[in-house]
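Reply to dn_fold:

You asked what the input looked like. This is it:
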Amino acid sequence: MNCAHAQGHSPLAARAPRYARRGSLLVATVLGMTILLLVVATMVISGGREAELTQLRFQEARAGYAADAGANMALREIKRNSDVDGDGAIGTISNDSNANTDPTVGVGGARVRVTPTGSNVYTVTSRTGTPSRSYTLTATPSGAAHSDGFEGYTTGQSLQNVGGWWGWDNDSNAAGTVEGGAARTGVKSQRIDSTTDSVRLYTQTSGQWVYTAWQFIPTNVTGSETYFILLNTYSAGGAKSWSTQIRFQFNNNTVYDNMQGGVTGSTRTLVRNQWVPITVLINLDAGTQTVSYNNQVLFTGSWNRQGGARRLQAVDLYGSSSKGVLYDDISLTAVGGGGGGSTVTMVETP
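and this is what came back:
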């Protein structure tokens, strides 16, 4: 008898340790592969997150560049006094409530729009993917003592003790109202009717100034006339002295200065259904004025034709018998504009 059999050791038993070693090797191999897969997975996940973060950083940068571009587009319109992008207003970009028409800036599809939020104040909004930017842009003409586009008011609001506006002699029934949906820039203007005698106060006592008011007289305006007036002396319920009084007659479509009763200077043709500038160049140092309508001179003369002081104290938008006359973009600016540009601030909105 084989000694190996006698001692109870079969050939299978003799090979058992080799199977055990192979099993241990297999476990070690699987464990190693698992660890490797975990390492690779971690690297992939980490790399994916880093790629995602990198993409977000690029999108953030694109949104920032788009906002800057939108602000520059708006300032270009303001400087040129022209609606370059054709959205119906000066200083706004794609202000049509249609996100699909917002201009695309650069590679990556960043979009931007600029909308009005107040007088000379705009909101610049850009977006690209999830990231977006929002800024408040203020563009005030240099040298401007006053500028009002009526965008910061509520449609239908009475301009009684609002933004420096009052009814004549502080009568709230004479105050102008805010018109919505009709404007030279933005979407709002001031409406003047037969009961309106809208006054805005000023404090200029020296220097050279340009007073500008954009007027809109609709084709179907009712009544017979309306007036644009500047006063060198105005006190509610007190003393008053006129310097300029432009009469707009509807029945014969004429425009002229009639502060002294008749026609002073030239008579011009009234323009309907179009925004038209009324401009008064005031030299308080010399005591003179030059008044223009639709870029045509009406007259040049003394600032104190009926006495008073060499100062500007008020504008008066007098409705007389009219109904539905509109004014927008009213401003008083120092001649030369203090450098001829605009004071621009741009603050990111939280």
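The domain at 144-334 is CATH 2.60.120.560 (Jelly Rolls).
Hope that clears it up.
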